[in-house]
Write a structure and sequence with these properties.
The complex is a heterodimer of chains A (about 700) and B (about 575). By secondary structure, chain A is mainly beta. Chain A contains eight helices and 39 strands. Chain A has a 22-stranded mixed beta sheet that branches. In chain A, strands 1, 2, 3, 4, 5, 6, 7, 8 and 9 form a nine-stranded mixed beta sheet that branches. Chain A has a three-stranded antiparallel beta sheet with strand order 34-35-36. Chain A is elongated, with a radius of gyration of 43 Å. With about 575 residues, chain B is mainly β. Helix content of chain B is about 15%, strand content about 45%. A 16-stranded antiparallel beta sheet of chain B has the order 10-11-12-13-14-15-16-17-18-19-20-21-22-23-24-25. In chain B, strands 1-3-2 form a three-stranded mixed beta sheet, with no helix packed on it. In chain B, strand 15 and strand 16 form a beta hairpin. In chain B, helix 2 runs antiparallel to helix 3. Chain B is globular. The two termini of chain B are about 40 Å apart. The chains are: A mainly beta (about 700), B mainly beta (about 575). At the A-B interface, helix 7, helix 8, strand 35, strand 36 and strand 37 of A face helix 1, helix 2, helix 3, helix 4 and strand 5 of B. Strand 39 of chain A pairs antiparallel with strand 10 of chain B.
């Protein structure tokens, strides 16, 4: 009895396997699927036998709708036909003969449940095609997706695949157009690919030799087109079916790429144009157990050779960039990038062999090299060579200039490293001013102009808006981006500034440090050098600037030598408000020292006007109303008189100029109504206002006298 | 630093003696579409043109200047001249510069101003050309005004928007300060604190920078020292500390001076003085003043007896005065000694003097005895607001009053009994307190009388110096100097009042027109005024120049009633240094 039932079941099963249409009844499928929210229209199933246990099944429907909370889909007419071979113990699917689904529309709603944490649950992603499907042959595939949507993204696509030759040789022509909105912006790509697939077997496992001629347009805003011709991809997945421990998929890519860029346009550098086409050679080898399974480790070894990137047109001869970029390592595609264990090697070099070409090129632009540096000739070079891992890396950088002109030198040597770290990147760079000599234009103290614009006069739009202090997280964000630490230091030779105001080049030593946020610290030291001050031989004994984030503190000393005296002018504080002290040997009072400096005589030998000028300078110095520039101008220009109003800070000076002319200048109010009862108008001369007649008590008239006076 | 840049530009302009436009093409490769004012200096040209300076810049480094750098330099140079939006264009290798119009200030916005600080009083900011120099001026004015209000340590910052022309002033006045102490510098030979006798301020009262300036002016004008400055040393909380900087200079001063007016023609003065006698800095002065109308020989001493800082001193004086005026010619010799002191509140200064004066009058011509001798007890009380004194060279505000009495009696070494009383008053009002002023109203007057037992004015005993006359630039400007009374006899009483309105700082080049009317009367007896009334409407011009102020008036004198029509006439005065 049981044996009869067994044999009946076997016979029934064989009958079903021989002709599955016996049990795959449309009504049954409709009844079952409606419970799952799937509604069919004109659903038909056709089944026929093509051999022993080799059925062919075809599903057809006029339309289908899937209405599930997280998934909505509908299609128009569809045909799916596949052939089975139940004699094969593990791979019954022999051929996907026809897959034609038209008018697909589907949308996926994101799950309300939180995504599992990667640390607690390994996410399954990517395409994992069962091997019994991958072993199957493919026939005509024609899938048209009118609209898909998932979350905030949506798009459309169609894919057509038709084997044109024998099963062992396929030609795939795809004309795909993708549109989707990401982050609110519409992106449209077009991919035209003509793929010739050669395979020794009809299995999806290959080995495949795929030759691709493809063109993708509008890849990104910066990349207009990516084109490849005769890109050879070798994919061998056949070994993975053997279930051996060493089985792997191998994807070997040898692709020449021609990338058409949308060159960056720099409005102020309209003449700087780069070649639109960049030629790269991509060589890569990817190995994985299952290359289509994003959860499987993938071994990568890729290299991009930058043959030569140059500017075009006039800028073509400026210099060039060349080098290699290679990456290798292991990664699991589905994991975050930070977990990838890859190494990227850089070997890049920027070389400007003729600085004058760069000068000439930049000359008509807003970035023109200013005088006197525009006269330099020579070369500059920037070399970056190093390795990056996925989360950290170290890129040594070297920069050097060898620039000279008849009266100046600019020899710089810089070395540093660019560190890529998990929390951000860091640039540490030291620039040594090996040999720097700079000439200043000939300055006539009677003529120096205003060299820089007054910062108080600035368009409101250019003034940085007064915004509240950055929030903590913003600061943290800034801290996590590029941090830099740049040092600038003179070498054995100081910087030499050539100026006609000094008898020899001014030797300057620098040791400056600039860190993120534009904070600069360091010191500037000027060695002794001779100069003329107060019409005498003088020497700058020392001058130091201590640069701190809060303020720049200066200290220094001039020595002015007279026949009878040696005067030291020491100053400390800030450049705008220095504390100036006068010392002399033999000792003199401050008044006498100032008198000697300004007029060459001690205060006892001055006339009234000179004494008052001396007193005004003394008072202005004491009130820190004289800055260093003013002190130097006073020292270098013959002074006739100096005025100082401590209440308004009004400082006035009258200079003796050539050809017996003189000029009064005033800092502050040009014309003070309250100039005083006695107004100096020159050496010994003044206008005095008197009230009343000294011998007539009834006379109270106000009158003025033009007066010459002499103190003795 | 900005100031000295401007200074250098100014020096360069002056050194070339050129203060007007250079034309529109400073060099072959630079063209200004309209001439700029002032033109470019030599170094500015070199940097703007990119041309080498020959022997000055021999190397190739400055043989050419890149175009963008030239634009930068030119923009900077133009900014200093008020051109804030220049446009550049290259045409056939030539840089064309459209300097545009000079940007003027359209509005002034002040943030953080303390009470009583009114920026709307400041003139000549809105509408003026926006330059760094203007900002310096506004800043100095602001600091000065804040210090006059008691804020000794203010912080002022300015910015300007060249697009809109708006100047923004940000003020951090800090606390209003009490003047706590003047930190003094010892002057060799003088007792400490000696200069406090000139203080126009009160220690412990609100700080006022103007009063510190006034104190400086008093000391320097007196000639006691060469230079005297009071500066804010520091502030502690609401306490301000001043520090004095003194350059004593030599004590002896020799001076020669001269002036001129239509009354005295040329006025000359020679003076010798020793400004620091003894540790109390007593003062000895000899002077000679001479004009065609008057010659004076004078010697006096301000003798500080007490060796401590004091305002009290004795003033012995001897003088000889020869007056040769239309009504009379006299020689007056005076010897006297007065006890004198001064006193200052925060707003007003007082001076009181009293003492005997022995006066001899030799009348060479005119009414009166040929020789008169008096021993007066002369007393004067003078008061002057600080701001009247502060603006004395350019009067604009404040008041002045002087009461003088000269008492003599036959019983006390005098030939006749004569008591002279004179009260002088003057007030000035600056309309709306604009700075600089727009309209200044002035009112002044004198009431004077001499009481004597010699009879009325027609008595021949009283010398002309004790009689009263009117007419002249200081009284009735429609009449000549001491023209009234017409009989030249002089009167025992006189009174006049003058009202003047001056338009200040409206017209260019310092021209200040004014109109006035003077009214006066004389009386033959003491404390009595008679008909007619004299009045003189007129107008004038005041010219403010760097070498002093000139004043010209043209007025018509009128006499009320049935007086002699010949007395009415036009009168012109021109003076140097005289003020209302």
């Amino acid at each position: 009895m049981y044996l009869q039932i067994f044999w009946c079941a076997i016979i029934g099963l064989l009958a079903i396997l021989q002709n599955p249409g016996l049990v795959i009844r449309p009504k049954w499928i409709l009844a079952l699927s409606e419970k799952s929210g799937i509604h069919w229209t004109d659903f038909e199933v056709a089944s026929k036998s093509t051999g022993l246990l080799k059925p062919e099944i075809e599903f057809r429907w006029g339309a289908v709708k899937v209405l599930r909370p997280d998934f909505h889909a509908e299609t128009a007419r569809a045909d799916i036909r596949f052939s089975l071979n139940f004699l094969h113990p593990t791979h019954p699917l022999t051929k996907m003969d026809l897959l034609s689904i038209q008018g697909i529309r589907f949308s996926v709603s994101p799950s309300s449940q939180p995504a599992p944490s990667p640390s607690t649950s390994k996410a399954s992603s990517g395409i994992s095609i069962p091997s019994w499907i991958r072993q199957a042959q493919t026939g005509i595939i024609d899938i048209q997706v009118l609209r898909w949507s998932a979350g905030g993204d949506h798009g459309s696509a169609y894919f057509q695949h038709a084997p044109l030759a024998s099963p062992s040789r396929a030609r795939l022509a795809t004309h795909d157009q993708w549109q989707w909105a990401l982050g609110g912006s519409e992106v449209s790509h077009r991919l035209n690919a003509d793929v010739t697939v050669l395979s020794e077997s009809q299995s999806l496992n290959g080995p495949w030799r795929i030759v691709v001629d493809a063109e993708a347009r509008h890849v990104s805003p910066e990349i207009r087109r990516v084109q490849t011709r005769n890109c050879v991809i070798h994919w061998d997945s056949s070994s993975s079916t053997k279930h051996s421990p060493n089985s792997k998929d191998i994807l070997d890519v040898q692709c020449p790429l021609e990338i058409t860029l949308r060159p960056p346009s720099i409005p102020s550098l309209p003449s700087l144009k780069f070649h639109e086409k960049a030629k790269l050679a991509l060589t890569s080898k990817l190995e994985s157990e299952n290359i289509l399974n994003m959860d499987k480790p993938l071994s990568v070894d890729a290299k991009v050779a930058l043959s030569d990137i140059r500017a075009s047109g006039e800028a073509a001869s400026l210099g060039r960039i060349f080098g290699d970029l290679s990456a290798s390592g292991k990664l699991i595609p589905s994991e975050p990038m930070k977990n990838w264990k890859t190494k990227t090697a850089f070997d890049l070099e920027l070389n400007v062999s003729r600085f004058q070409r760069l000068v000439r090129f930049l000359d008509p632009t807003d970035y023109a090299v200013p005088a006197p540096f525009h006269a330099l000739r020579g070369s500059l070079e920037l070399v970056a060579k190093g390795e990056f891992e996925s989360t950290h890396g170290k890129l040594p950088i070297r920069f050097e200039t060898r620039l000279h002109s008849p009266n100046q030198s600019l020899v710089l040597d810089g070395e540093g490293t660019f560190l890529l770290q998990r929390l951000g990147s860091n640039l540490d760079f030291n620039l040594e001013l090996t040999d720097v000599e700079i000439p200043l234009p000939h300055l006539d103290l009677a003529e120096p102009p205003q060299f820089v614009p007054d910062p108080r006069i600035q368009a409101r739009s250019k003034t940085p808006p007064s915004s509240p202090a950055p929030k903590e997280h913003e600061q943290a964000g800034q801290a996590s981006s590029l941090a830099y630490h740049v040092g600038v230091k003179t070498g054995e030779k100081p910087i030499r500034i050539q100026t006609n105001l000094a008898k020899s080049p001014v030797p300057i030593h620098l040791d400056l440090r600039m860190i993120s946020g534009g904070v600069m610290t360091g010191t500037v030291h000027v060695d002794p050098f001779p100069l003329d001050m107060f019409r005498r031989n003088a020497q700058l004994e020392y001058f130091d600037v201590d640069i701190t984030p809060k303020e720049n503190k200066i200290s220094g000393s001039f020595k002015v030598t007279y026949t009878d005296y040696t005067i030291h002018i020491q100053f400390v504080g800030t450049a705008d408000q220095p504390d100036i002290k006068f010392l002399s040997d033999p000792p003199l009072s401050d008044s006498d020292i100032i008198s000697v400096l300004l007029f060459g005589r001690t205060s006892e030998d001055l006339d009234q006007s000179q004494s008052q000028s001396s007193g005004n300078v003394k008072s202005a110095v004491a009130a820190r109303g004289l800055d260093l520039a003013a002190l130097y101008l006073l020292s270098a220009t013959p002074v006739e008189s100096v005025g100082w109003d401590p209440q308004s800070g009004t400082f006035s000076a009258k200079f003796r100029l050539a050809e017996g002319t003189s000029l009064s200048v005033t800092k502050g109010q040009e014309e003070m109504e309250s100039v005083g009862i006695r107004k100096r108008i020159g050496s010994h001369w003044a206008i005095t206002t008197q009230l009343g007649n000294p011998v007539d008590p009834t006379d109270h008239s106000i009158f003025a006298l033009f007066e010459w006076s002499h103190r003795y | 630093m900005k100031f000295w840049g401007v200074v250098w530009v100014a020096i360069s302009i002056a050194s070339r003696g050129v203060c007007f436009a250079q034309g529109d093409e400073p060099c072959p490769n630079l063209h200004f579409t309209v001439p700029i004012n002032p033109g470019l200096s030599d170094l500015e040209k070199r940097l703007a043109c990119g041309a080498p300076s020959g022997e000055k810049d021999t190397g190739p480094e400055y043989a050419t200047i890149p175009e963008s750098q030239r634009k930068f330099h030119i923009s900077t140079f133009l900014q200093a001249r008020g051109y804030q939006k220049p446009q550049f264009e290259i045409r056939n290798g030539v840089l064309w510069v459209e300097p545009g119009t000079k940007r003027t200030v359209t509005a002034l916005r002040v943030d953080g101003s303390p009470p009583k600080f009114d920026f709307t009083r400041k003139r000549f900011v809105v509408g003026e050309v926006l330059t760094p120099k203007l900002l310096d001026e506004v800043k100095s004015w602001t600091v000065e005004r804040l210090r006059s209000l008691g804020y000794a340590c203010p912080h002022v910052e300015l910015t300007a928007d060249p697009e809109s022309g708006i100047v923004s002033v940000t003020i951090r006045p800090n606390e209003r300060d009490l003047l706590t102490q003047v930190l003094e510098e010892d002057v060799p030979g003088l007792i400490p604190g000696i200069f406090s006798r000139y203080d126009a301020f009160e220690i412990g009262n609100w700080f006022n920078g103007d009063l510190a300036t006034l104190t400086e002016h008093r000391i320097v004008n007196e000639g006691q020292v060469e230079s005297y400055k009071l500066r804010v040393d520091h502030c502690e909380g609401d306490h301000a500390f001043l520090r004095q900087d003194v350059v004593p200079g030599k004590a002896r001063v020799l001076t020669f001076g001269f002036g001129a007016n239509t009354e005295g023609v040329l006025v000359a003065q020679a003076e010798w003085k020793n400004t620091r006698l003894g540790p109390s800095a007593s003062y000895l002065d000899f002077s000679i003043d001479a004009s065609s109308k008057e010659q004076i020989l004078d010697a006096y001493m301000n003798w500080y007896l007490v060796h401590s800082p004091t305002r009290f001193f004795l003033k012995p004086q001897i003088s000889s005065d020869h007056e040769n005026l239309d009504p009379y010619e006299t020689i007056t010799i005076r010897e006297g000694i007065a006890a004198q002191t001064t006193f200052d509140t925060q707003d007003v200064g007082f001076q009181f003097a009293s003492g005997p004066v022995d006066e001899y009058v030799d009348t060479l011509r005119g009414v009166g005895s040929a020789y008169s001798h008096f021993l007066f007890l002369e007393t004067s009380l003078k008061t002057m607001s600080h701001y009247f004194e502060y603006y004395q060279p350019n009067p604009r505000t404040g008041f002045y009053a002087n009461l003088l009495t000269d008492l003599s009696d036959r019983k006390v070494f005098s030939d006749v009994y004569a008591e002279r009383f004179q009260l002088d008053l003057e007030g000035l009002w600056n309309l709306n307190n604009y700075d600089p002023p727009l309209l200044i109203f002035g009112l002044r007057g004198t009431v004077a009388t001499t009481e004597t037992d010699t009879g009325g004015a027609y008595s021949a005993t009283l010398p002309p110096t004790l009689r009263h006359y009117l007419g002249g630039s200081q009284t009735l400007r429609g009449f000549g100097l001491l023209e009234l009374p017409e009989d030249q006899v002089g009167r025992l009483s006189s009174a006049f009042a003058s009202f003047e309105v001056r338009m200040a700082h409206v017209l260019p080049v310092g021209i200040q027109p004014f109109v006035f009317v003077d009214v006066g009367a004389l009386g033959a007896n003491a404390f009595d005024l008679d008909d007619p009334i004299f009045w003189s409407p007129g107008f004038g011009l005041r010219l403010q120049t760097p070498i002093g102020n000139f004043r010209a008036t043209l007025a018509h004198g009128y006499v009320s009633g049935n007086a002699d029509p010949a007395a009415s006439h036009l009168q012109f005065f021109l003076s140097y240094g005289e003020e209302f």
